[in-house]
Structure formats: structure tokens, C-alpha cells
Amino acid sequence: MGFLSNFRKELQSAKAKKAAQINGKTLKGLLKTFKEERDQVEKETGTRPEIDDTTRMYMQKVLNVWISEGKNIDEEKFWREVDYNRQFTHPVEYYEIKN
Q1: pLDDT score for 15
Q2: How many distinct structural domains can be found in the chain?
Q3: pTM
Q4: What residues are paired with 73 via a beta bridge?
């Protein structure tokens, strides 16, 4: 019985990990699309539009994932950088708090 329950737990864990990877790739693709749209608007109008609520929600999810993975993220630096400039122009390490 113990073998089957361990196998079941490992299988569920593997499925959850694969789903998280797929969701992460989808999320990154959406953020890239949002960024490209903002780049296009900036090119046409000369001013960069504010990040809409949907994009902000996805970015918050990314931030939450980084924090749940144990990364110590400087949220103020994260939001200032992605809001003012582009979305995720730097690697995760850029946003991490240096001790």
C-alpha cells in the first residue's frame, strides 16, 4: 500500500510541476505580447501607455511565483522598473534583494 500511495503522490507532484511550467510559459508569452503592444503604441504616439489592470495582474502573479520559490524580491524595485521602462528587461537576479 505504501508503494502505491508514494507513486500516486509522485505522479501528482510531477503533473503539478509540468502544469506550472506550461502556465509559466503561457504567462511569459502573454507578458511579451502586452509589452509588444505597449511598444507599438509608444512608437505610434510617442508616449508609453500605462500598464493596464490585466497586465498588472499577470505581473503580480509572476512576482508571487518568484516569492513562493524562495526568491527575496525587492517589490519596489520590481514595480518601478517594469512600470517605467519595459516589462522584464532584466533577469530575476536583478530584482532580488542583495544581502
Answers
A1: 74
A2: 1
A3: 0.52
A4: 96
